[in-house]
Amino acid sequence: MSIAAEQALSRDEQDILQELMNIAFGRASADLAEVIDTYVVLNVPEVRTLKVVDLPEFISTEISDHDIISIVEQSYLGRFKGVALLIFPSGAGRELLNLFGDNVEDYGEDVSMAALEKESILEVSNILIGACVGKVVELLDDEVSFSPPRIIIEDHPRNAIPCEIFEPNSLATVMRTVFQFSDRNISGYLFLINSSESFQWLKKALNLFMEQYE
Amino acid sequence: MIHTILIVDDSTISRKIVKKCLPKDREFELFEAGDGLAGLEKFKEVKPDLVFLDLTMPVMDGVQALQEILKVDQDAVVVVQTADVQKKTISNVMDSGAFTLLRKPLSPEAVAEVLRLVEGTGQKKG
Questions:
Q1: Could you confirm whether domain A3-211 is CATH 3.40.1550.10?
Q2: How is residue B45 annotated by DSSP?
Q3: Which CATH number does the domain housing residue B115 bear?
Q4: What is the spatial distance between Cα A147 and Cα A74, in angstroms, rounded to a whole number?
């Protein structure tokens, strides 16, 4: 067994992290609903530990209903360290643009529809990733910073899903939640993928979180 | 007085937090269920004085469970505890007949206040 495997989260620790993800995504959804007139239907999040080398296949399977996707990738840096992937199926950018109440005509001839759709996805990702990661870390009494997001619009999953997030032989903890906008035909997938570098701190922080209830 | 409490939540951690937030100087008979349907069945079986009910659950979600519980007993006292704090969710839950809604994660203070309110209103028989 590798060092990383020995440090992987226990079942109880994964359960705590799943509940924190549940709380954090709930807050993030409420933040988003304040900005755009929508209602986010939440689902039960899932937490699992995977080999990094298996991540692309895992994510591809999760989103296998969609041939074309848009994806926002953003790293969060701190003791809680990893990569957030927010994935939308094809056409979501236009739907989100409508939710923001924006029309391409409002921006003049210099701004394309594609650019506006991209901006809409980035804005939603900024809220959902920022609020969700921020809340998880706040509950664990810590802080993170974010790298600039990277966005890929309307591409095949095999091209869009990053293959080399972390060291391929290490493990990663994957927090995954699926959500829908109730009045629009939009579903989305949020993955928070923590590197094994943060396992040791994360284990301590999760146990400290529960200790306040002992 | 509240003697029996049913905690319905798919998260074992969340159920544990609820139990830990109950006043230490009182004794309760506690029952648990891991989804809305199991919670409904357990409610019919034990007729608890108070229900803590999560919303986002598999099999049967919390809003449906709330409505079904109130069909069984329109005086049931159901406190929804949820991570989903969107305004529409809160209004939907309260319109469906919840006693109140608490944000996750619960705190001992919030739970003590709810017990005080429930017992103060005398809403539940016994």
A1: yes
A2: H
A3: 3.40.50.2300
A4: 6
With CB atoms and an 8 Å threshold, state whether A42 touches B85: no
Q: Is residue B60 in some structural domain?
A: yes
A206 vs B contacts (CB less than 8 Å)? none
C-alpha distances (whole Å) from B15 to each of A88, A213, B31, B54, B101 are 33, 12, 10, 9, 16
Q: Name the residue among A19, A29, A213 with its Cβ closest to that of B20.
A: A213
Q: What is the number of other CB atoms lying within 10 angstroms of the CB of residue B105?
A: 21
Chain A neighbors of B34, CB-CB under 8 A: none
Tell me how far apart the alpha carbons of residues A45 and B54 are, in angstroms, rounded to a whole number.
14
Which of B23, B93, B44, B121 is closest to A26 using CA atoms? B93
Burial of A181 (0-12, 13-18, 19+ CB in 10 A): buried
**Do residues B39 and B33 touch, judged by C-beta distance below 8 A?**
yes
The DSSP secondary-structure symbol of A180 reads E
What is the value of ipTM here, to two decimals? 0.87
How many distinct structural domains can be found in chain B?
A: 1
Residue A204: CB atoms within 10 A of its CB come to: 13
Tell me the backbone φ, ψ of residue A177, rounded to 5 degrees.
-135, 145
Q: Domain containing B95: what range?
A: 4-120
Instruction: Tell me the C-alpha distance between A88 and A94, whole Å.
Output: 11
**pLDDT tens across A130-188, in order?**
999 999 999 999 999 999 999 998 888 888 887 777 777 788 899 999 999 887 878 99
Residue with tokens 């928070």: A192
Is residue B125 a part of any domain in this protein? no
Other beta carbons within 10 Å of A214:
7
More confident of the two residues B125 and B110 = B110
**Chain A contact for B12, CB < 8 A?**
yes
Q: Which amino acid, one-letter code, is at B100?
A: T
In a domain, B97, yes or no: yes
For residue B7, list its beta bridge partners: B32, B52
Write out the two tokens for B2.
């509240």
Q: Is residue B14 part of a domain?
A: yes
Inter-chain touch A18–B11, beta carbons under 8 Å: yes
- pTM of this structure: 0.89
